[in-house]
C-alpha cells in the first residue's frame, strides 16, 4: 500500500533533520518528519499483522485466499455464520519463537513478512490492524505501542496484568482514536445477548447476586530450569516481566498458571465469564468497592496459582455481589464446566462459558422478545465482525478497552486479595486501594530493560 | 529464635509437602528473625523446599505490608536489608530487593542505591527504587543517572519517567542532548511523561539517525508532552504541537491532535479542527466530527 520509495524518504528526512538541527524542541519540527506517506484509510481489504502465533494467535490468521474469496469467521469468535468477513489478508507475522513463526507462515500461504521483533511489524505502514495473542504480560505494552503506530488492535484477554497497564491502554486508545477490541468474545455470542436482554428487561427482577463457577487450577510438577531452546528468544519472551530462569513450564501456554505471568483460571476464564457479567449488569465503567478472597494453594509443584479460590466482589449503586468460585456450584438448570448464574428477586438465569466452548443460556431467555419500549441491547454480528465494523465506523467495539480493563481489574484484584490474605477496599474511580500501601504498590509493576509503560 | 520458629523452619524442610505447606501458611505469625534462614532455603536443592521458603517469605512480608511503620515491619525490613550483602547468593539478594519493593520506605534507599552500580543487580535495584514512593528513591535514581554508563541510563530515565518525577525534569532535558541516541530518546520519553516544561529548551535527538520506531516514539513523546502542557493550561506550546501534528500525513497523528484539541476549549482549537470536518480521509473526518461534537458539548453551559 505504501508507495513511498525508501530512498526518497531517507532523503526527505535528511533534509528535515538538517533544517531542524539546533532548533528548540517542540517549536520547530518540520512537517512530515514522522513519515512521508499517507496510509489509505481501511476501505475494502484489510491488511492484518499478527503478534503472537501460539494456539490462540493462529486462529486469527487470514489465509492468502481471504483477500479475494469470501470467508466466514471462526465460529469460536461468536459469529452467527450469517455474514462474510471483509476481504483481508495476514500480511505480516511476528513471534519470538521461530518455530511458531514458520508454522504460521506455512499455514496461511502467500508471502507474509516475518518478524521476531514486533516493533518492526508495527513500523509497516500498510498494516491496518493487528491481532495480539502474546502471553498476558505483553498485552499492555504491545497494545499501547500499536496505538502509537496508528494500528487498530484486537488484543486477547485478559487485557492486562496490572491496573496501571489497563488504564494506560485505555489512555493510549483514546489518545490516538484507535479501535481496541479485547478478545472476550462471549458478548458477541447470541446466548449472552439473549440473557442480557432478559435480565436488563427485568425478567428475573432486580439482580443482587451473580455467582460464577469454574473448575480448579491445575497442579504443575517440577521441571528443572534449563537453557532456552535455540528457536526461542527468551529475553524477548520475558520482555517487561521480572527475570526468572527459563523453564518450559513457564512459557507458551503454561505461563497462565504462574501468578506473575498468567494468574490462573480467574484471569484466563474469569475474563470471559465475568466479562458477560459486567455487560449484563451494565457495569463496564466501574468496579467493586470491596474485594475479599480466600483460597488453597497446592502443597508442591511449580505453579503458584491457588488450587481453589473464592472471591467476593461487592458493588455499590446499584448494590450487588459478584462471586468467583473455583470450583463453586454447577447449577442444575444448565450444567457446564463454567459459567455464571444471575440471581434476581423474581427468578434467575444461567449463562455458560463465554469463550470457545458452546455458550448457552436457558430457553426462557432465548424465547424472550423485547416489548415495545423495552431495553434494546446491541447484537454483535460476531467478535471479529464487530471489530471490523468499528474499524470503518470508528465506534467503540462491544468489548472495548475500558470494558476489558475493568474486567481484568476484577481478576487482578482477586489475585492481589488472595496473595495478601486480606480484603481490599477498592475505589473504582481513582482505581486505588484504600488504606493499604502494599496493595497499591501491587497495582503497577516497573518494567524491565527497555520495556516500560 | 523461639521453639515455635525453630519448628516452623524444620517443617519447611520436611519431606512431606503437606507439612511444608502447613508451615508456610503460618509464616505470618513468625518473627522477623526467621528471614535469614528463609533466604538460605531459597537456594535449597529440593525444589519443594525452595517453594516453601519463597511462599513463607512472601506471606511474612505481606503480613506487615498494609500500612507503613510498625515494629515488626521495621524488623523485617532490617533483616531483608541484611540479605543484600555480597555474601548472599544472587537469588537471595534478588528476592530481598523484590520484597523490599513492596514494603520498603526511605530507610532502605541508602542500602539499595549502591546496587545501581553493580551490573548483576542494577536492574533489580532500579525496579526496587522505582516502586518505593518516597522522594528519597527519586533522588537515588537521579544520582544513579549521573554515574551510570550509557547502556544503563535509559533504564533509569524510564524509571524517572514512569514515576512522573518532576525533580528529574532538568536532568532529562540535559540528557536529551546526549550524543548517544538511545539515551537521548529515553530522556525525551521520560520528559514527555513527566510533562513539566524545562527551564531551557532542550536539544532535539538526532532525527537523521532515528530508526522508524524511534520516529514513532518521537511523535508519541511530542503528543504526551503537548497533552501535559494542555493540562497545565500552557496553550501556546500545546496548540503549536497539535497544529504540527495536524500537518502530518499519518492519519493517527492527525486524529490524536484532533482529540486533544477538542479538550482545549479555546477558539484556536476550534479553528484547527474545523477544516478536518471535510477531510477526504474517513477516519480523520469521523474523528474531527467527534472532536467537534465533544467540544460543543463541553462549551454548553452546565444546568
Structural notes for this entry:
- The complex is a heterodimer of chains A (453) and B (303).
- Chain A has 453 residues and is of the alpha/beta class.
- Chain A contains 14 helices and 14 strands.
- Chain A has helices at 6-20, 55-58, 98-108, 118-122, 136-148, 163-176, 190-200, 234-238, 265-268, 270-280, 363-367, 383-393, 401-420, 437-441; strands spanning 46-51, 88-94, 113-115, 129-132, 152-155, 180-182, 207-214, 290-296, 308-315, 320-326, 338-344, 347-352, 424-427, 432-433.
- In chain A, the strands form two sheets. An eight-stranded mixed β-sheet of chain A has the order 12-11-7-10-9-8-13-14.
- In chain A, a hairpin with a 2-residue loop joins strand 11 and strand 12 (347-352).
- Chain A is globular.
- Chain A starts with 5 loop residues before the first helix and ends in a 12-residue tail after the last helix.
- Mean pLDDT of chain A is 90; it is low at 1-28 and 35-41.
- Chain B is mainly α and 303 residues long.
- Helix content of chain B is 64%, strand content 0%.
- Chain B has helices at residues 3-12, 17-24, 35-41, 47-62, 71-82, 90-103, 109-112, 122-131, 135-147, 153-162, 169-175, 181-194, 212-231, 235-246, 251-261, 267-273, 282-299.
- In chain B, helix 5 (71-82) packs antiparallel against helix 6.
- At the A-B interface, helix 1, helix 4, helix 5, helix 6 and helix 14 of A face helix 2, helix 4, helix 6, helix 8 and helix 10 of B.
Amino acid at each position: 500500500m505504501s508507495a513511498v520509495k525508501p530512498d526518497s524518504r531517507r532523503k526527505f528526512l535528511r533534509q528535515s533533520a538538517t533544517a531542524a538541527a539546533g532548533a528548540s524542541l517542540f517549536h520547530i519540527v518540520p512537517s512530515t518528519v514522522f513519515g512521508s506517506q499517507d496510509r489509505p484509510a481501511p476501505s475494502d481489504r484489510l491488511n492484518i499483522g499478527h503478534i503472537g502465533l501460539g494456539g490462540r494467535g493462529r486462529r486469527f490468521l487470514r489465509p492468502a485466499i481471504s483477500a479475494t474469496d469470501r470467508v466466514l469467521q471462526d465460529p469460536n469468535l461468536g459469529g452467527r455464520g450469517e455474514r462474510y468477513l471483509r476481504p483481508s489478508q495476514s500480511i505480516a507475522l511476528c513471534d519470538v519463537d521461530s518455530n511458531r513463526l514458520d508454522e504460521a507462515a506455512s499455514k496461511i500461504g502467500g508471502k507474509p513478512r516475518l518478524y521476531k521483533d514486533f516493533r518492526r511489524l508495527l513500523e509497516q505502514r500498510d498494516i491496518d490492524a493487528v491481532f495480539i495473542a502474546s502471553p498476558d504480560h505483553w498485552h499492555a505494552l504491545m497494545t499501547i505501542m500499536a496505538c502509537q503506530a496508528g494500528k487498530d488492535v484486537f488484543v486477547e484477554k485478559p487485557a492486562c496484568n496490572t491496573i496501571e497497564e489497563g488504564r494506560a491502554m485505555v489512555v493510549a486508545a483514546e489518545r490516538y482514536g484507535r479501535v481496541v477490541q479485547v478478545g472476550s468474545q462471549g458478548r458477541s455470542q447470541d446466548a449472552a445477548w439473549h440473557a442480557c436482554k432478559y435480565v436488563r428487561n427485568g425478567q428475573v427482577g432486580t439482580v443482587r447476586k451473580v455467582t460464577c463457577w469454574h473448575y480448579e487450577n491445575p497442579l504443575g510438577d517440577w521441571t528443572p530450569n534449563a537453557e532456552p531452546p535455540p528457536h526461542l528468544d527468551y529475553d524477548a519472551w520475558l520482555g517487561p516481566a521480572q527475570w526468572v530462569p527459563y523453564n518450559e513450564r513457564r512459557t507458551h501456554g503454561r505461563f497462565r498458571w504462574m501468578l506473575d505471568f498468567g494468574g490462573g483460571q480467574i484471569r484466563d476464564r474469569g475474563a470471559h465469564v465475568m466479562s458477560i457479567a459486567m455487560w449484563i449488569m451494565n457495569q463496564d465503567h466501574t468496579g467493586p468497592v470491596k474485594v475479599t478472597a480466600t483460597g488453597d494453594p497446592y502443597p508442591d509443584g511449580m505453579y503458584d496459582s491457588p488450587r481453589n479460590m473464592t472471591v467476593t466482589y461487592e458493588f455499590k449503586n446499584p448494590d450487588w455481589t459478584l462471586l468467583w468460585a473455583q470450583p463453586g456450584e454447577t447449577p442444575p438448570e444448565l450444567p457446564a464446566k463454567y459459567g455464571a448464574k444471575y440471581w434476581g428477586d423474581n427468578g434467575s438465569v444461567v449463562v455458560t462459558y463465554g469463550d470457545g466452548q458452546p455458550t448457552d443460556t436457558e430457553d426462557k431467555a432465548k424465547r424472550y422478545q423485547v416489548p415495545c419500549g423495552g431495553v434494546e441491547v446491541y447484537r454483535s454480528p460476531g467478535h471479529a465482525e464487530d471489530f471490523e465494523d468499528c474499524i470503518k465506523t470508528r465506534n467503540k467495539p462491544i468489548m472495548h478497552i475500558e470494558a476489558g480493563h475493568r474486567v481484568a481489574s476484577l481478576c487482578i484484584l482477586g489475585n492481589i486479595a488472595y496473595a495478601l490474605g486480606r480484603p481490599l477496599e477498592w475505589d473504582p474511580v481513582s482505581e486505588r486501594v484504600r488504606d493499604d500501601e502494599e496493595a497499591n504498590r501491587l497495582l503497577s509493576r516497573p518494567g524491565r530493560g527497555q520495556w516500560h509503560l | 529464635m523461639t521453639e515455635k520458629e525453630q519448628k516452623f523452619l524444620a517443617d519447611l524442610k520436611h519431606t512431606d509437602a503437606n507439612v511444608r505447606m502447613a508451615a508456610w501458611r503460618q509464616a505470618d505469625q513468625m518473627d522477623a528473625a526467621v528471614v535469614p534462614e528463609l533466604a538460605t532455603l531459597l537456594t535449597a536443592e529440593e525444589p519443594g523446599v525452595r517453594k516453601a521458603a519463597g511462599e513463607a517469605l512472601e506471606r511474612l512480608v505481606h503480613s506487615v505490608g498494609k500500612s507503613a511503620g510498625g515494629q515488626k515491619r521495621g524488623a523485617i525490613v532490617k533483616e531483608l536489608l541484611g540479605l543484600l550483602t555480597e555474601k548472599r547468593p544472587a537469588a537471595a539478594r534478588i528476592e530481598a530487593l523484590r520484597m523490599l519493593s513492596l514494603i520498603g520506605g526511605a530507610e532502605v534507599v541508602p542500602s539499595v542505591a549502591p546496587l545501581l552500580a553493580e551490573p548483576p543487580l542494577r536492574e533489580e535495584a532500579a525496579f526496587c527504587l522505582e516502586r518505593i514512593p518516597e522522594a528519597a528513591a527519586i533522588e537515588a535514581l537521579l544520582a544513579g543517572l549521573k554515574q551510570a554508563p550509557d547502556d544503563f541510563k535509559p533504564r533509569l530515565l524510564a524509571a524517572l519517567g514512569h514515576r512522573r518525577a518532576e525533580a528529574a525534569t532538568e536532568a532529562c532535558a540535559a540528557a536529551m542532548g546526549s550524543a548517544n541516541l538511545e539515551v537521548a530518546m529515553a530522556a525525551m520519553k521520560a520528559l514527555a511523561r513527566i510533562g513539566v516544561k524545562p527551564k531551557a529548551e532542550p536539544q532535539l535527538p538526532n532525527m537523521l539517525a532515528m530508526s522508524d520506531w524511534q520516529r514513532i516514539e518521537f511523535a508519541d513523546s511530542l503528543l504526551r508532552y503537548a497533552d501535559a502542557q494542555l493540562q497545565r493550561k500552557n496553550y501556546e506550546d500545546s496548540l503549536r504541537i497539535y497544529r504540527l501534528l495536524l500537518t502530518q500525513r499519518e492519519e493517527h497523528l492527525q486524529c490524536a491532535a484532533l482529540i486533544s484539541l477538542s479538550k482545549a476549549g479555546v477558539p484556536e482549537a476550534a479553528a484547527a479542527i474545523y477544516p478536518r470536518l471535510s477531510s477526504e480521509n474517513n477516519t480523520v473526518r469521523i474523528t474531527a466530527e467527534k472532536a467537534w461534537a465533544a467540544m460543543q458539548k463541553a462549551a454548553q453551559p452546565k444546568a
